Amino acid sequence: KNKMKKNLINLKYTILLISSVCIMKSTFAQSPSTLELTRSGGGITTGPSTTPVVGTFLNDALNADINTVYSSYAPSLTATVSYRNQLRSTTLTGTSTVVNGMLFGARLSDEISATGPQVVGSTKLYNFFGAAIPAGRPTNAMFLSSPTFPAANSPIVGPSGSPNGLDRSIDAENNSLATGPLGNDGNYGFALFNTVEPLYDANLAKDGRYEFGELVIRFNRPVVNPVIHLAGMGGSYSFQPILPVNAPRQISYFTTELELQTLGLTSTLRAGNSNINLSGNNILNSSTTPNAGCYEDGSTTNGFSNYGAASGSVRINGTVTELVYKVFVRGAAASNFNFSKVQADITSASRDPFNGDLYYLSISLDKPTQQISGNIFVDRDGLTDNNINKSAGVNNLKTNLGGSLFANLLNTAGQVVASIPVSNDGVFLFDNVPVGTYSVQLTTNASSGTYASPAVAPATVLPTGWANTGEFVGNVAGNDGTVNGTSSNVVVGSEDIKVEVNFGIERLPESNSYVTFITRPQLNSVITLNGTMPVLSGSDPEDQPVPGSLSGKSLRIDTLPNNATLLYAGATVFQGQVIPNYDPALLQVKFTNPGAGLTGIVLFNYSYIDAAGLADPTPATYTIRWPDIGILPIVLSDFTGVKNNCNADLNWKTSSELDSDKFEVEFSTTTNTTFKAIGTIGASGNSTITKNYQFNYFMESGVNYYFRLKMYKKDGTFTYSQIIALGCVDTKAPIAIIPNPSNTGFFRITGMAKGKNTVSIYSNDGKLIRTENVINNKDVNISNLAAGTYVIRILNENGTASVERLVNY
Description:
Blueprint: E1 6-7, E2 17-18, E3 34-37, E4 53-60, E5 78-84, E6 89-91, E7 98-100, E8 102-104, E9 106-107, E10 121-122, E11 126-128, E12 172-173, E13 188-195, H1 197-201, E14 209-224, E15 227-233, E16 235-239, E17 250-260, E18 266-272, E19 276-279, E20 282-285, E21 300-301, E22 304-305, E23 310-317, E24 319-331, E25 356-366, E26 371-378, E27 390-391, E28 394-395, E29 406-410, E30 415-421, E31 427-431, E32 436-443, E33 455-456, E34 466-473, E35 490-492, E36 497-498, E37 501-507, E38 510-511, E39 514-517, E40 526-528, E41 537-540, E42 544-549, E43 554-559, E44 565-568, E45 571-572, E46 578-579, E47 587-590, E48 599-609, E49 620-627, E50 634-644, E51 647-657, E52 660-668, E53 676-682, E54 691-698, E55 704-713, E56 718-720, E57 724-727, E58 736-738, E59 746-750, E60 757-763, E61 768-774, E62 779-781, E63 788-796, E64 801-808
């Protein structure tokens, strides 16, 4: 039989405090072998601590009614539990010690009647599941270890519930039972504690619900449908007032609640008591007076019931590598006070109690049979280091490109026998794979092929702008020799767990096109493209998220001009030449044939090559234009623009004019293309002295403008000026989000107005995720955002707004 064991420990506890924990053991008759956390599966140390805790799974193959014998399991499977983004803390009374709101191995302080500074109670970080047992201790009937064995039709209530007619009675155990590394064992779990002292410190409402941070569960390799067991979510604190005599006992109720943040998963309640409530992916306590007891056993503390804890088993449906839960503590309207008290309000003793909710977490899953799993890495430097898992020695991030990627399992004939979407965390896992030889294809094309009915493999493609960098079966340096989006062969034998079938992909770089105007050049004159003329520039999500000069980068000259010569470091550039470590001061244009006619033009194409050695697939065009001196109606000596608040003040000068008619002012907001006229200024006609002109235009907030002059002669012919850029922002640079796309867990906004800026983050479907105030160049934390596209709205206190899109992967 398959049931969750518990450890019956004789425990002294004060009548003034009630901690909240319960217990578990797993195994059911005829259920599959399960992997469970046991005594032998981890180091047992004492808290309080915020250091991550690791448990190693062992195999429970017997599934007998009384089974405490486990066997080792290979390849090793571990679960690491950690806290992230702690939002609450308290300073212990009488000390300078700061304690985080979420702790491992902590409990209510003992000996609260003693004098001295406030202390944190201590317990083992990893222990028998529910080792610190209060009244109303739970039963094994509240837990179910196997994710596939038939579950109860409804949550279990009471100590003797036996859904489906299966006995889940308690196996009495104690700490002396273990006899060796793989001998008699019991189910173990992680002791978690959320202190309510920070809520008391802030005098927060007793019936509020307050976020504490994030609880992270990470497996060392992908698993299928893990079961999360929680025991004793709920607790209270009570005391008997000294005065007035016979006053009613005072009590505060509170409970932990968890909300799953990992996208692409669903949850199922497998078993539990009447207080556990699963709402979507949120694990809640339905009791209006949460307390420590897991069922109503008639026990009381000075007249009030201990019942009110939530305990049970929740299956996470899907392939999982990491689970992230937001942690909340909820109070209750029935409480007599808000969360805690100082000792002076209770007795004459001087030590303040340390209060909170102690609960336990354990994990189990069905023992895998045959599996193939792997990862999709954003490999920013490609095979330059012969390693798709790392770049420059740093672990690469993983991605599923917003849910667009599929892993197809191919047989030796190259046919698809299974097809699955890559998970949000960039992993894939094929479960219950028949014995045989396979390879894995990474593509945006799913397939209906099955083991019984294989299908022709679809095309191996990635989303536009992405490219493969390599494949390798292993988590060290290496590659399979061919960059094609398909792995080398993987041989699956009986009970083989094949991991690390890995793929590297990366975003392709982009090069910037330019059109620039000059006066008619002289034959064999030379100009340098070092800033006076636009510098070759581009962007790359991994190497250069913000568009800018390619100085120090690599680039390729794809085509050459037919009426000029390109020089680099004084040598003639040839078509297809790759320039590493590009220096703008060394790239020049020599005008060997300036040409004649209405206008002259020189152009060439170039491509940015990123750190992975991949080039922009759509080379940029660099264009230099000039009017022929014989028909030039206007000699423009200067054209400048200044931003005055949101007004563009344009000023220009002419040194001479011949039969000039007018200046037509044009602008574009799309990087030097699609210009339109916004105003006309009359020209002088004929002049040999300097003439000054000006024009003003109001610019919309957050928009980049590109202005030019269209200079007409009276016969209708015209020429263009050079282009100048302005924008309605507080700095010369436009508002930009960097890095974008982001793989760093944060982004920064540049170009914001000075003062208080309100930044709102929306999902791609328009749902507000959060709003916060930031200043220019301050990091915005997005480590808890899943991969995908988000809308960022920046609102300045002066009322101007800008909207940008962010890709997080």
